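PDZ domain-containing protein
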Amino acid sequence: MDKTKFYTLNTSYINCKHEELWALISTTDGWNQFLTDVALIEGKKKRIEIGDEVDFIIGELTNKSICIIKEAPHRIVFWDKYKALLPDGSYREYELHTDFTLQEISENFIKITVKVDGYEDDEVMQWIRECGDMGWRQTLYNIKSVLELGLDLRNDIFNYPRIGVINYTATPDQLLQANSSHEGNFIMKVYPNSPAYSAGLRESDIITHINGKPVATYYEFVRTLSHYFNKENLIEVVYLRNKHLNKLNIQLTYDDQYTGMIDPEQTPLEDVALVRKEKSIIDEA
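Predicted structure tokens:
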């Protein structure tokens, strides 16, 4: 059994004072500086202590998280209870543990490690795990930018163009069944009326290339789409269907239905869900 499918591990090295980095991950004000739209503890206290339930909201993602371990100023662990609003207006709930550890390599040079575990062995959770792994890579990059440069880049990092699908790194069995000599991204879901749907992409297709670049993994898929931030808005996609390679063009979109870049303080998630459900109705005529 591949145990790595049940957790993710990401690290970064940051030039800053130890207490600056610790304050970022152990206070609600700190979280709002690098990731969350809302980070709130009942009573509006700022410092997170063991037993505190923290409401974290990141765009369309809500997390009622409990601090279960705190070893100041080196380690803090959260028991996360996520509720994700999907592009079709439905929700997915799941639980994880997120473990932050800080190690002082030298004065003003800190190693931060984020380990997330608790992923289940099913198709949707494989997508969530790969999303989460990429998300923490991006978040650690933003933490580094905030502390070293004073720049919060989260909107630029996360607001890359989308095509309107749920995809993950195709498994060996899926590639074998598709008789594929290329690795790629398995399309688990194509959302109705999305750019991918309108172009003709469907569930179980395997995307192997975008504009001639191989996208063997989910990481490469996201990295390639991110390359087109504020650039071209039409991409050529090579995909496998019925054991044959095909091509089509897809118009990239920044619609918050797929990017998740919404302001939950301005628009209640319940209202966003209703709009997304309406957008997902296919006009059969």
